[in-house]
Amino acid sequence: MKMQIKRLAIGCVVAMVASSLLASPSAAKNPSVAPSVINGQSGHPWNGASVYLEIDTAGNGSVCTGGLWKPQVIVTAAHCVMETVSSPIVATSDVTVWPPGANIEAAGPADVQVTSIVADWNNNENGTVRDIAFLTLSAPIGSTPISRLASEREVADLIRSKATLTYIGYGSTVPRNDPIQSFTPIPLWLTQPLTDEFAYDNIESGSFTMLGDGITSTCAGDSGGPLLYEASGEVLLVGPLSGGTGLPCEAEDVTAYDNATTAAAFLNLANQALATVNLPPEALPTPRLALSKPDREYGTKVVKSNINEQGLMTASIRTRLKKGSPIWVEVLTCDDEDCDDWTTISEKKFRVKKKGRVSFTTSVAADQFVYVWDKKNRALVSWLTATD
Questions:
Q1: DSSP codes joined into one string, 374-385
Q2: What average pLDDT does this structure show over 358-381?
């Protein structure tokens, strides 16, 4: 039977970015069927990534959405399982889980119990949103289309390219201020482009933002739902939704956007949850090292340059120097943004051979510079290392 929960509004505001958290009061027992998460769509092939959650505490309750990361592990928003950032996490027995992608009017809760909850919730003054929780289950509840978590580097690349993410959830299908609230009994989806307009959206922040269009949006009850991206045939879980603002969910006529948390930024929590159900740690792809286009001076030509997965750089250059002339290959890292100060990681001396040729190898890591100098302290060529 569906759990009877007293309806309680628990909306609040994310510090500094003024985005409403999207946990909702519990839906009525028979919510009206609507074809949208406020103008979204139904029937996405990734519906199995979305899980309906009810949280009941002392007779008061709320509805959230979760993402089925593993058949026995759900990722959701921390504010779904905590009333405030300083509140304790709710008891595992207070959370009821439905099967993935279920029509909650036709299906009852899954025959499982939540066995553990780990969470991190901290809305910082600079706008960074950390709002994530991992729930483990007593048994698997079905398969999921999610292949793995998107790595932090992948998320940073998605932000820079303003990629479009897919959201799937069980939230309200009408604006928050509508006197007759309507919640979807089936998972509904919409797409939103990432934005880099906010300074805190970067690889260090652990959060990201999607821009709304004022026509379609997530709303109450969508908190914790999965934001997904497909790459090379894999469905990546970028992170759980936290909150949003703007039309059509909110009445205020401001820029519409949603905030979310990068799941891979909390890999320790994720692996703690995996260990609870005897699953191996999440294995994220190792970023590959790459070299920038060489910056050449004094007639220097680059015959070839490459770098392997172990960080060994091999290069062959042609200079205008005489045979036997010394050159130095220096690997350095900048100590400040303008690189006015730097630290030398390594330095090797080589000799010019016939026709000005020099071949060398050196070990490098990401975000380092490789310079080739002559005895007059002139930079003949340089590269920057990065990950792709």
A1: ETT--EEEEEEE
A2: 94
Distances (CA, A) of 354 to 263, 320, 362, 376: 54, 11, 21, 20
Instruction: Quote helix, strand, coil % in the chain, to nearest 5.
Output: 10, 40, 50
What are 190's two structure tokens? 């919409």
Domain ranges of the chain: 6-276, 289-387
CB of 350 closer than 8 Å to CB of 326 = yes
Q: Does this model's pTM top 0.85?
A: no
From the list 303, 315, 270, 308, the residue with the least C-alpha distance to 290 is 308
Is residue 260 within 8 Å of residue 79, measured between CB atoms? Answer: no
Task: Name residues whose C-beta falls within 8 Å of residue 377's C-beta, 6 or more positions apart in sequence.
Answer: none
Contact 235, 228 (CB under 8 A): yes
Express each pLDDT in 312-336 by its tens digit. Answer: 999 999 999 999 999 999 999 988 8
Contact in structure between 162 and 216 (CB atoms under 8 Å): no
User: DSSP state, 39?
Assistant: S
Query: Given the structure tokens 């007639």, which residue do they identify?
Result: 299
d(CA 80, CA 96): 12
Distances (CA, A) of 308 to 263, 292, 312, 372: 29, 14, 6, 19
Q: What is the DSSP letter of 172?
A: B
d(CA 46, CA 31): 23
Q: Helix, strand, or coil here: 176? A: coil
Kindly report the CATH number that applies to the domain delimited by 6-276. Answer: 2.40.10.120
Does domain 289-387 bear CATH number 1.10.1740.10?
no
Q: Cis peptide leading into 31, omega within 30 of 0?
A: no
DSSP state of 267: H
Q: How far apart are CA 54 and CA 223, in angstroms?
A: 12
With a pLDDT cut of 90, the percent of the chain lying above it is 53
* Residue 41: CB atoms within 10 Å: 14
**CA nearest to 119, candidates 151, 81, 91:** 81
Q: Which residues pair with 63 in a beta bridge?
A: 24, 54
Angle CA 233–238–240, to nearest 5: 135
Secondary structure (3-state) at 158 = helix
Q: Give the C-alpha separation, 122 to 112, whole Å.
A: 29
